[in-house]
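tool=predict chain=A
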Amino acid sequence: MENASDGSRTSLKTLLRRGMNRGVFPAVLDEDLGVALLLGPMLYRHIFGSSVSLDWLVEGAVDSFWRAHARPDEKTKPSQPKKKLPK
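tool=predict ok
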């Protein structure tokens, strides 16, 4: 039986693997731990409610993960995705 979070975990693992293959993250990065570190803050917000800013939490979690795990030559902040214009 599949959990609702299985798709999110699979997607995050794919992104982490891509970063490892490109040399952004070290090849020894523990994918499961990486997923836990990135999804944990979202679960925190889910448990403690919307009084925690989602934007603040996402940016803080990703920035902290990046600073902790990106290879030294990749430590600059990741480029922000371009916002999609409404149709």
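The chain has a mean pLDDT of 81. The CA atoms of residues 67 and 76 lie 8 Å apart.
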